Amino acid sequence: MIHDSNLSRFKSEIQSTQEHQFSLLRRDTEKLRIELQRETEKIRTELQRETEKIRTELRYQIDKVTVGQKAESANLNNKLDQVSHAMREQLEAAKYDVIKYSIGTLVSISAVGLAVIRILM
């Protein structure tokens, strides 16, 4: 009987110890889970911050390249306009020379024609 009583008490102690250990384990697990969630959120926030920094830097670089391209495009347009204007001036000068020489030729032919008519008459 004493033996059964001791055995019963021993079982009770073991069960109590197991429940206590299980309770401690559950509490530690819950603490770890909460800490893991906190760290996960911290890392997520940090990752979002870094992602935003990278996006901002990329936007800056894109804007910088775009401004450079616009300036280069404007410069090329100006050069193209200058070349076009110079070619128009050359064309107008050539056209003026052709008209001038044509009129000179017509006047010369007319003078020769009148001289021939005068000689023949």
TrEMBL record:
Query: Pfam families, from UniProt?
Result: CCDC90-like (PF07798)
As for subcellular location, the record says: Membrane; Mitochondrion
Q: Can you tell me where the transmembrane regions are?
A: 98-120
Q: Which UniProt keywords apply?
A: Coiled coil, Membrane, Mitochondrion, Transmembrane, Transmembrane helix
In the UniProt record, does the keyword Cytoplasm occur? no
**What's any one GO cellular component for it?**
mitochondrion
Q: Which InterPro entries match?
A: CCDC90-like
Q: Which SUPFAM superfamilies match?
A: Apolipoprotein A-I
Name used for this protein in its record: Uncharacterized protein
Provide the species name: Stephania cephalantha
